[in-house]
Structure formats: C-alpha cells, structure tokens
Specification:
Length: 408
C-alpha cells in the first residue's frame, strides 16, 4: 500500500524539507487546473442555457432569403439574386398554402437595425414590423397595452431598462440629418407597452427590440411585401419535418430561393460554435499547465541533484533502481495531487462566479455536463505532474552508486 511504503515516506519528507519550493511548483498546477476547469464549466453552462431557451420555441420554422450560402438566418439575409434579397408576396403565398394543411400560424416579418434617440440619449435597436393582430400569439405584455394608433409601439424589457422607457415615452427613430439614400428620415413613435423578458429565442428576439405595425414600418423603413423573414409556428411539433420538406419543394424546387431552418438546427449550430470557443479558450488555459510542467520538471531535477549522496547510500544498501524511480515519481505525484486538489476547489468556486458573471444564471451549474470538468481538470493536472517527473526519476535511478557516494 502506498501510504505504508518507506519510499513514499521519503518523498513526503523531501516535500516538507523543501516546502516553499514545492508549494510554488504546486501553485502552477493550481492555476492551470483553475483555468481549464472554469472555462469548461462556463462553456457547458452557456450551451445548456442557450439550448434550454431555444428549445422553448422548438415548434418554430424560420424561412429567410437565400444568398447563395452566405446570408439568411434569424435576422434575414440575402435573396435568390443580388437584387431581391427578401421574401416577396408570391413566396409568402406559397408558404401560406403549405402551412394551411395544419393548425399552423404564419408570421411574416420585416426587420432592421436602426438609430434611435430617447431624451437626448442616442443608441441603436432592432426593429420588427409585424401584423399587430399576430402579436398576442407571439409575446406577452408586462406593462401597458397593445398600440391603438399607427404611431404606437411595443418595446422589449432590456431596451426599456436601458433607456428608462415607460408607457407614454417617445422614441425618435432614424437619422436627424439625412445625408444619403441609406439614411432614414427621423420619425417619432410612442411606447404603449413593455414586453416581458423573453431571453434568447429562435423566432423573435424582443428584449432589445421595438415592435411596430407593419404599415408604420413600410411607411418609414422598408418596402411593402419585401419580408426579411417568415416564421411558421407549427401547431404540432411532430409535423415540423414534413412541413420543412413541403416548404423546400414549394419554394426551392427550381433553385434555392430561401433557407429553411428550425430551432433544432440552430441549437446544433450554436452548440458547435460555443464548443469551439470553449476549446480555444481551454487551449489558452492549458499553456499555464505547460508552464507548471516545466516548473515541476525543474523542481524534480533540483531534487535529484540535491539528493545524489542519499541516492548513492540507498543504492549501496541494495535499493533497486525501480524503487529509486518510484521514490521520485511519488514526489511528483504528491505535488500533482495537492495542486490539483486545491485547483479543483478553487475552480468550483471560480467557475460558479464566472458562470454567474458571464451568463447571469447558475441554473445549470450543478449538472453532470458542468461539474464533470472538475475531476477532468484534476486528472489532467496530476497526469502532467507525474509525466514531468518521469525523466528526473529515470535519471536518479541511473546514477552510479560509487560516483553518487563521492558526490559532495
């Protein structure tokens, strides 16, 4: 048993004799474990949080213009050619015909990002143009009511908080000074309602947006029947795949005119992107483990140099080379276990703080997908330490006993 092994006791004694040096080496492992584990935990929580939010709108199909593979998506994109980067009236009619086969809701959307001004404070916001009769099926109003006039709008909770908007507030949209054709002449709208917080969504991201009637939108911001996106809210989630096939046949049977996706494909894409970012950041964190490995290697080589005479005495009384190697590997193992153990505790606390600070919630912190990074980080730290001690241990075991005894 390792704790009853005399060579383990000798390793513990050497760590105690060189406590400060050993502690500094172990701190390198602590930093490396904390960096890798905390980043892994944050990435897992981010993926779980996004997946949960998008899954709530899992019955939504999003149709956007196809720009040859480079555009489209939630906020719209390109069209089937360079001039018609929108979904037109004919395409909308085809979508409605396909969706009419079930209890499905078709939601045509105009959307853009435009300059806004509230009480002298300037900024930018996403703006949706939509048939207001569809709004109650899409969002919930926390305060106020639906617009009763064409100049009334609904605003997202985050946008309202940022600009201190209340029911009755006025927002100027567009550019005060129109310098070219791309500038929108400024017009004023009045807030009639503030929406409940929705979070990330595959259909409408309303928290930082303004929702206005489609007639008001086309009067100032866009052309009629040139939709940036059309959503279908499926009455039965099991019909989504069949709906997508029918839509693809109706709209893309000659050439790709639109991109069709649901929240499931978005979840896969976002998860893959977050995973790539997490791996990249973990790779950067792994550099600290590499530095720690060099530090452990240096400490072990110093330990071998300082204990040459001790090694000579042990070898002269019959100690085998394998036992000498074991003694030094025990020492690197002790440094690894101590460093990885402290790192695990620190990364648990640091991961919790980092997750809350970056994501704003720790609802998924105590899940297997999140906490599995703690033991993984510990194992990685211990393995790095032991590998760093392999060569010093081998060198110690290869010392000639007579030459070692002559050493001063």
């Amino acid at each position: 048993m390792i704790f009853g092994d005399i060579f383990f006791d000798l390793s513990v004694r050497n760590v105690r004799l060189n406590f400060l040096r050993s502690l500094l080496a172990a701190i390198g492992i602590v930093i490396g474990v904390v960096a890798i584990t905390s980043i892994g935990i944050m990435g897992a929580n981010m993926t779980l949080s996004i997946t949960a939010e998008l899954s709530e709108s899992g019955n939504v199909i999003m149709i956007s213009p196809d720009s040859g593979g480079g555009g489209g998506g939630m906020m719209g994109g390109g069209g089937s050619d360079d001039e018609d980067e929108y979904i037109d009236k004919t395409q909308l009619r085809k979508i409605e015909q396909v969706a009419a086969t079930g209890d499905n809701l078709v939601v045509p959307l105009y959307t853009t990002s435009e300059n806004i001004e509230v009480g002298g404070e300037e900024g930018r916001a996403t703006i949706y143009g939509i048939d207001m009769t569809l709004v109650p099926d899409l969002v919930d109003i926390e305060e106020g009511s639906m617009p009763l006039s064409t100049s009334g709008v609904l605003v997202g909770s985050s946008l309202a908080e940022r600009y201190d908007l209340v029911v009755g507030s006025r927002i100027k949209i567009g550019d005060e000074d129109v310098e070219d054709d791309d500038d929108v002449p400024q017009f004023t709208v009045r807030v009639t309602g503030i929406l409940e917080e929705k979070g990330m969504s595959s259909d409408l991201s309303t928290d930082n947006a303004i929702i206005m009637d489609e007639d008001l939108y086309t009067a100032h911001l866009g052309s009629e029947y040139e939709y940036d996106q059309v959503n279908i809210i499926a009455g039965d989630i099991d019909d989504i795949e069949e709906l997508e096939d029918d839509l693809d046949y109706a709209l893309n049977y000659r050439e790709d005119e639109v991109r069709i996706q649901d929240s499931g494909s978005m979840i896969d894409t976002i998860s893959e992107t977050v995973g790539t970012m997490t791996s990249f950041m973990s790779a950067i964190g792994a550099i600290s483990l590499l530095v720690a490995a060099v530090s452990i290697f240096n400490v072990m080589m110093m330990s071998v140099t300082e204990r040459i005479k001790e090694i000579g005495i042990l070898r002269s009384i019959g100690t085998r080379r394998s036992e000498i190697r074991k003694m030094f590997l025990y020492e690197s193992l002790i440094l690894g276990v101590v460093g990885a153990g402290i790192g695990a505790v620190a990364s648990f606390i640091g991961g919790y703080i980092l997750t809350y600070g970056m994501i704003g919630t720790t609802d998924y912190f105590f899940t297997f997908s999140s906490l599995m990074y703690v033991p993984l980080g510990m194992v990685l730290g211990i393995v790095i330490c032991v590998l760093s001690g392999v060569y010093p241990a081998y060198r110690a075991s290869c010392l000639d006993p007579i030459e070692a005894l002559r050493s001063e």
